[in-house]
Design goal:
Layout: E1 3-8, H1 14-25, E2 28-31, H2 33-47, H3 53-57, H4 63-72, E3 75-80, E4 83-88, E5 91-92, H5 100-109, H6 113-129, E6 132-136, H7 139-143, E7 149-154, H8 157-168, H9 177-193, E8 206-209, H10 215-229, E9 237-242, H11 248-259, E10 262-265, H12 266-279, H13 289-297, E11 301-306, E12 309-314, E13 317-318, H14 326-335, H15 339-353, E14 358-362, H16 365-369, E15 375-380, H17 383-396, H18 403-419, E16 432-435, H19 441-455
Parallel strand pairs: 1-6, 1-7, 2-6, 7-8, 9-14, 9-15, 10-14, 15-16
Antiparallel strand pairs: 3-4, 4-5, 11-12, 12-13
Helix pairs in contact: 1-10, 2-5, 8-9, 11-19, 12-14, 17-18
């Protein structure tokens, strides 16, 4: 996983910069200060009852009370379309974390080792699982000392105070610039002189003075540094998830051709396993965890590309020609939810993605299989349109099916895919929606290319 660390003093624009970099790099962003702020808010709520939080700000923090609170508190980080949410003991406290009282208390409690231990645990676990941009005061020096690129933001204190003042004024009309400047100076002194993880640049930090720079100018400069220091996209992965007959397979193939990438058909992998189950004359009525585990232990799965076409080899037999029958599709739906099957497929998927520029399609590719994919798309369409596509596919293969039966089966499949324990259809917060109801294949592919161009790359349209 790759990490960009952004450290610096309050009012330098760390949060805004981190959001822009994360969006344009396709990374996730962890606002580490939100962890401290959530604990500070919870502690203020607990201890401020009856005397007001302002009164609590003026006296020393009771270490024992704080320690007891922190030990019981559960902090979780969640993401939605509008960004990071911080959950404290089951409650989303995100809207309450930007007050001056919470900011000051967060600075006070952050000096306690037991508070920082909780914070470090959450932050490092996040880094372990995600390509990410992290901002704070000691990310590069303490939390992720091996970060790929480290920035340290600084700016004139009066400029920072004015930025902070304008931000606070949105919610507090009575705030005074002089008070904000005094608080900022006090906070700078405390943060830079504290014994535990003081605010300071690392030897390998890139110092960015943004006193006379806009946020966009700062971001552009940092992106240039990142591109020089970090080979971001030696391998590019594109995921396409969505409902059955929403067009994800055909879009994946066409998009891969336009980009010059390989296309990895995940559904074909599961269907090949179903073909092997059928070939081995196993009993569908005996399907169970134990039965499928025994079956999984008996199969060796390979993916080979011949003249650009994906071939599915199970135990030395090429099952590619038989993947699209109704029987195999139904059998695949029964087998694919088992964890032992998913683990076997997952190993192949991730190994292939690590070595190839590819487009991979399925139900949960962006949410589970390749959570750090560079681009994630999600296909959907009106269910009657999808049922008509399915009906025509089956008729073309000579299957005697009725439209109403196909529609009912599709509805049942949708329900099962949405509610399965493993591999459920999931739209991630960063998913780009493709509604193919009234859209041609070329229009869908053009849409994907345009969205990719806007976010990072400049692809030539072949």
């Amino acid at each position: 996983m790759r990490t960009i660390a952004i450290d610096g003093f309050m009012g330098c624009g760390k949060s805004g910069l981190a959001k822009i970099l994360a969006k344009e790099l396709g990374f996730k962003m962890l606002e580490t200060g939100a962890i401290f702020r959530a604990l500070a808010y919870g502690f203020l709520q607990q201890e401020g009852a009856g005397e007001g939080s302002n009164a609590l700000q003026k006296r020393e923090v009771d270490e024992n009370k704080l320690k007891n609170f922190v030990q019981k508190a559960k902090v979780e980080i969640a993401f939605s379309e509008d960004g990071q949410h911080t959950i404290l003991s089951g409650v989303d406290v995100t809207p309450f974390l930007r007050t001056e009282q919470v900011s000051q208390m967060a600075s006070k409690i952050s000096v306690f080792p037991f508070v920082r231990e909780k914070y470090v645990q959450i932050a490092r676990e996040f880094v372990r699982k995600n390509d990410c941009v992290m901002e704070g005061r000691d990310i590069g020096s303490v939390i992720v000392p091996n970060a790929d690129v480290k920035f340290f933001l600084t700016a004139d204190e009066k400029v920072r105070a004015k930025r902070r003042y304008m931000d606070l004024k949105k919610t507090n009309k009575s705030v005074k610039l002089a008070d904000v400047l005094a608080d900022l100076r006090e906070r700078d002194l405390r943060d830079s002189t504290r014994e535990l993880a003081p605010v300071k640049p690392c030897d390998d930090s890139v110092i960015v003075d943004d006193t006379d720079m806009t946020l966009r100018e700062t971001a552009d400069y940092c992106l240039q540094v990142i591109r020089e220091k970090l080979p971001l996209h030696n391998v590019v992965n594109v995921t396409i998830d969505g409902y059955v007959c929403s067009g994800k397979s055909t879009i994946a193939k066409a998009l891969a051709r336009r980009l010059g990438f390989k296309v990895f058909d995940t559904g074909a992998v599961y269907r090949a396993i179903a073909c092997a189950f059928d070939y081995m004359n196993l009993d569908e009525n005996k399907i169970s965890e134990k039965y499928i585990q025994k079956f999984a232990n008996q199969i060796n799965l390979e993916v080979q590309f011949v003249d650009g076409t994906q071939h599915m080899i199970v135990n030395g037999i090429d099952h590619t020609a038989g993947l699209r029958t109704e029987r195999i599709s139904a059998l695949s739906a029964k087998i694919s939810p088992f964890q032992c099957i998913r683990e076997k497929v997952l190993e192949i998927q991730r190994s292939f993605a690590a070595k190839n520029n590819l487009v991979m399609e399925g139900r949960d590719i962006g949410s589970y299989v390749l959570p750090n994919a560079n681009f994630k798309f999600f296909c959907l369409a009106d269910e009657n349109v999808r049922a008509k596509r399915r009906f025509e596919q089956q008729r073309a293969m000579g299957n005697d099916v009725q439209f109403d039966d196909v529609l009912k089966e599709l509805q049942e499949r949708d329900f099962a895919d949405e509610n399965r324990e493993h591999g459920a259809i999931t739209k991630t917060p960063e998913s780009i929606i493709i509604d193919t109801t009234n859209q041609s294949l070329d229009q869908s592919v053009d849409f994907c290319i345009n969205e990719m161009e806007k976010r990072w790359f400049k692809f030539s349209k072949k």
